[in-house]
Amino acid sequence: MKLFRVLVGLAILSGAMVSISTAKPEYAKKEGKKCTYCHVKMGQKDLNDTGKCYKDNNHSLDKCKAPEGS
Q1: Which residue in 11, 13, 22, 33 is deepest, having the highest Cβ count within 10 Å?
Q2: Res. 31: pLDDT tops 60
Q3: Phi/psi at 39 (nearest 5 deg)?
Q4: Could you give the CA distance from residue 52 to residue 70 in angstroms, rounded to a whole number?
C-alpha cells in the first residue's frame, strides 16, 4: 500500500512537471494575446504571417498586421 501511494505521488508530480516544462507563455503575456495570434495552432511551433512578422521585428507587434479573424 505504501508503494502504491509513492507511485501515485510520483505520477502526479511527473505530470505536473511535463505541463510546466512545455508551457512558454512569455510572449503571450508580454503582448496580451493568445498563442494563436502568432501560431497556426495552439501548441505548435508553426507561425502564421503575424508570428513571422513578430519574429522578424525583434519580437514586437508594432509593424505587424493582426491576423484575420482577430
Answers
A1: 33
A2: yes
A3: -105, 150
A4: 16
